[in-house]
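Translate structure to sequence.
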């Protein structure tokens, strides 16, 4: 690939316009060209300029000379018995990120990553143990969705089907990385995903999960407008410091204060509190009672997530009895608290795990 070429994925319409202005014959056609390109890239999923047949051959040839429409390579794809698909994607600099598709009866959720690795070292999270960290670009964020649509053959289905039922209907930023430490690229990527003339996934079907980067929380509502999930996981600062070390910087009180002031907080746009259930660490009845008190007054729902063990981790999953007791207290206080059924366990769909397997394979190959 010619390194002088520029990627068109991840750019705003105005940026595409600036790039193609010098190669458009007359000024008047620029907006139309941008719309056509946007449609090919984001509603048809086309990656080959020569197939964009509603533009002149000369213009297509020039586009091909100067630009490309990038896709990551699927290095590994695992399909679970329950239909969950986990992709390990190779980026242009050979870094690897994970994307997971989770089909359900009423929806299909794509879990995307915002960084390679994560700087935050939560003690129960495998991603935090991985050395290398870099931010993903807006292009790499959008490409995760585009490559999943390629793999699910969804572009064609959306084109032909009258019902337009989407395979990927919802997005969660719950893969690798802390999205609020990569705010601008995440915002640009999500704006493209929400754009109604392209991929067009509504802001209400997108949930951004943060471990609690307090100064950036209001901006999620103000500048992106998607739903918010908080990785809460503990009801005292002592335990939260241990599980989510970022709590030492912004403690439970400052986190909850930022949520009480969150723009557009309402019953229809409640905040999700994620709570990983770890045996004898954060799963007592007292924890459940404290949790209910702490979040009172914040329109919210609570997602109980059984801890997903990984090799070498110091924690165990809570017993089903402890999870049941915990959820009873929360339900009695009027909160819905779905216990997230582990999905894709046979393919290790929990965050960060596929990458570790791939590393092991590489190491063993070296010794072979
Ligand atoms: N960094 C962001 C988003 C990515 S993590 C955040 O922390 O919110 C996405 C979710 O997966 C978080 O709620 C995180 O706490 C959870 N998670 C991480 N490791 C887990 C594990 N081993 N078992 C269960 N959930 C885990
Ligand atoms: Fe990073 Fe989130 Fe994992 Fe914590 S839970 S290490 S913030 S990816």
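Result:
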């Amino acid at each position: 690939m010619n390194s002088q070429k520029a990627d068109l994925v991840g750019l705003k319409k105005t940026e595409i316009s600036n790039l193609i202005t010098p190669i458009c014959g007359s000024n008047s056609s620029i907006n139309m060209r941008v719309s056509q390109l946007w449609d090919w890239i984001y509603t048809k999923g086309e990656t080959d300029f020569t197939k964009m047949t509603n533009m002149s051959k000369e213009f297509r040839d020039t586009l091909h000379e100067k630009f490309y429409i990038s896709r990551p390579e699927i290095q590994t794809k695992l399909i679970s018995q329950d239909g969950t698909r986990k992709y390990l994607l190779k980026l242009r600099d050979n870094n690897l990120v994970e994307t997971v598709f989770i089909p359900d009866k009423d929806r299909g959720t794509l879990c995307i990553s915002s960084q390679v690795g994560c700087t935050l070292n939560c003690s129960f999270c495998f991603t935090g143990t991985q050395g290398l960290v870099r931010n993903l670009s807006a292009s790499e964020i959008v490409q995760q969705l585009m490559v999943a649509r390629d793999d699910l053959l969804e572009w064609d289905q959306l084109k032909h089907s009258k019902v337009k039922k989407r395979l990927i209907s919802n997005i969660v930023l719950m893969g690798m990385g802390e999205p609020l430490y990569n705010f601008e690229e995440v915002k640009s990527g999500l704006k493209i995903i929400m754009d109604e003339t392209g991929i067009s996934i509504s802001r209400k079907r997108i949930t951004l999960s943060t471990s609690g980067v307090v100064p950036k929380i209001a901006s999620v509502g103000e500048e992106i407008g998607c739903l918010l999930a908080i990785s809460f996981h503990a009801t005292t600062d002592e335990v939260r410091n241990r599980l989510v070390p970022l709590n030492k910087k912004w403690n439970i009180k400052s986190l909850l204060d930022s949520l009480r002031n969150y723009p557009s907080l309402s019953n229809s746009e409640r905040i999700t509190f994620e709570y990983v259930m770890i045996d004898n660490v954060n799963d007592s009845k007292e924890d459940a009672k404290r949790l209910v008190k702490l979040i009172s007054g914040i329109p919210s729902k609570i997602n109980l997530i059984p801890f997903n063990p990984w090799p070498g981790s110091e924690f165990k999953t809570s017993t089903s009895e402890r999870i049941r007791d915990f959820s009873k207290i929360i339900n009695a206080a009027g909160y819905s608290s779905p216990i997230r059924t582990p999905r894709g366990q046979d393919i290790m769909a929990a965050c960060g795990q596929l990458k570790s397997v791939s590393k092991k394979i590489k190491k063993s190959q070296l010794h072979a």
